[in-house]
């Protein structure tokens, strides 16, 4: 699992390096070509005109060069950010697909029962379990595993699976949904994946 993560991170880094390297080389080549042509023109003009005119044109060229370089860097950053988003979306789509696959297996029922049983060890008053509509068939399993009086309700916001236990009277919410877990992992992923834009 760690090896797959490292391979995936290396793939992302390599892909970003490759794409940015190509674009930066193209920009540098274009800038070098523009600079060469402009310098040739300026040298010819400078021979005919006074040194002050030449100096003014060089300043304008440098300013134009700086503006073009800035625009090129902005465009490259925009493309790299789009690629980063595309790669991250792909990673999280695959993660969601694996979660959905897990929720179709018998182990998922056992997972829900185990989590409910662990929460049953607490003294939560008037507990309400919120589950996704895909998990409606597990209502009795959750109640039985919890071992105490509780309600199970459908929450259409829970799409991937898991459940959320709420005790309104005690101000307690225990979120065991895969939906929340995947959202929390997105923040971690963006911080630790190495897919940042300089």
From TrEMBL:
SUPFAM superfamilies in the cross-refs: V-type ATPase subunit E-like (SSF160527)
Listed Gene3D superfamilies: ATP synthase, E subunit, C-terminal
InterPro entries per the UniProt record, alphabetical: ATPase_E_C (IPR038495)
Name of the protein this chain belongs to: ATPase
Source organism of the structure: [Eubacterium] hominis
